[in-house]
Amino acid sequence: MPPLSANKYVQKIFFTLTGIAVVIIMGALFFLLGLIFIRGAPVINLEFLTQAPRRGMTEGGIMPAILGTLVLVAFAVAFAFPVGLFGAIYLVEYAKEGRITRIINEAIENLNAVPSIVFGLFGLAFFVTFLGFGRSILSASLTLAMMILPTVMVTSVEALKAIPQSFREGSLALGASKWRTIQDVVLPEAFAGVLTGVILAIGRVAGETAPILFTGVVYYKYALPSSPFDQTMALTYHLFVLATESPDIAKTRPIQYGTALVLVGLVLLVDATAIYIRRNILSKRRW
Amino acid sequence: MDAVDFETKSDVLDLVQLPESSIDEEEIALETKNLSLWYGDLKVLHNISLKVVKNAVTALIGPSGSGKSTLIRCFNRMNDLINNVRIEGTVLLDGKDITAPDVDVTQLRRQVGMMFQKPNPFPKSIQDNITYGPRVHGFNGNLYDEIVEKNLRRAALWEEVHERLEDNALDLSIGQQQRLCLARTLAVNPEIILMDEPCSALDPISTAKIEDLIHELKENYTVIIVTHNMQQAARVADYTAFMCLGELVEFGATLQVFEAPKNSQTEDYVCGRFG
């Protein structure tokens, strides 16, 4: 009997510990989201979403920042998507498994592990200065694109690898070329996975501050950007400035929470879209 | 003939009316000469010399790992998909060595179609499965409906699916899927059809349907079928090649290989003593 009860005792302790861990995780998440929601929701209205800031950013809305973030993300995806997808196609469909694929895979992993501030400095040195794009939407979104490239590529690789080899064989055996096979048989089926990767990357990149800090954002800009060489406001940087450098930090506090709520809401919306699309496509998949 | 001595087996066999092994007089669709193949350092095919008769069914039988599938994958260069494959010897199709590096494999594979062990229709509609091959080869007319119907009929599938051509091919039963794969292969007008154990995933009724089709196919096509099932080889094939451990042990008219094998290994295999 004694050993049994001791076992039970140990079991109980570990069950409790695992339970506590879950409570901590969920608690932290709900506390964070709850706080942002409770403090941020009251300031959110049509004016807040559609107007520019006024009176030293203590009044008005955050529309230029929302727009700026959307533009940066759109450009970043436009750059990273084709490169990531084509890289993945090379890796899965063309490259022979061996030293080179191993080096590429490791490079991608390392790229993914680089701190975002380092990307920011790289962007400053390379896109802003060396290529002469200046501090601009172009430089900032290219820097963001570098950051999400590994995510796009890794998810695309997974999506391509998930396509059964028998589909490729069926197409090749009919005399289709390799590219034709990829284009007509592999990519349509891999689309769900690739798209999910892109959307996850969007969610991630929308919340980044460091990579755009030196490369293209400003804390206040009256006119909306009109070309890729303009600078822009962005939600994350706006929040940072409001919380640390605005003339009257206390007065901007509600706007800070409102901005945070919009940012979080945007990211959650994007992620929810990814989950929805993925589920939708997977439910139609028959293999 | 009264004086025949029945003491030895070979004497008995002399009495059986065997068709003369007359492959050399037939028209040859495809021929391998001293074909050897390595996966890396592993030699998988050993000096295979085989003649495939035109408009006939040739079966490749033999135990697992004997190289049957590897051999037919030389005929449409599907081994190209695998790394570290090395080939020596020749495979002649229309007098041309198709193992040569300058061969256009897309054209070769249109000429030499293939059905796989597990039906692998594309996850597209039934009609798109049929038209895929013609589209790939640049057919762009408005005869797609005709192509779909003709090839589904050839594969004895039309009656079952003509009302649901837009449906996804993967909604068909496995047996129907395999016939769809046949229809898809026929749609590019091949001369030779390779079948890699086409019935191994099928139930007996679907298997019978495929076998019936094979009989009809040989009027217009040359069929090479790999099978584990010796009864199947006996039922469908005009010629049978017995392979073991990468070697072509025996090759001849099916009746001869089954009834009067010249090689004791073949005899053991077809009698079910090993394999």
Model description:
The complex is a heterodimer of chains A (about 290) and B (about 280). Chain A starts with a helix and ends with a helix. Chain A has two domains: about 1-45; about 50-285, MetI-like (MetI-like fold, Orthogonal Bundle), CATH 1.10.3720. Chain A is globular, with a radius of gyration of 23 Å. By secondary structure, chain A is mostly helical. Chain A has helices at about 1-40, 45-50, 65-95, 100-115, 115-130, 135-160, 165-175, 180-205, 210-215, 235-245, 250-285; strands at about 55, 60. With about 280 residues, chain B is of the alpha/beta class. Chain B has a single domain (about 20-270), classed as Rossmann fold (3-Layer(aba) Sandwich). In chain B, about 35% of the residues lie in helices and about 25% in strands. Chain B has a six-stranded mixed sheet, with helices on both faces. In chain B, strands 2-1-4-5 form a four-stranded antiparallel sheet, with helices on one face. In chain B, helix 5 packs across helix 7. Classes of the chains: A mainly alpha (about 290), B alpha/beta (about 280). The interface of A and B includes residues 171, 173, 184 and 286 of A.
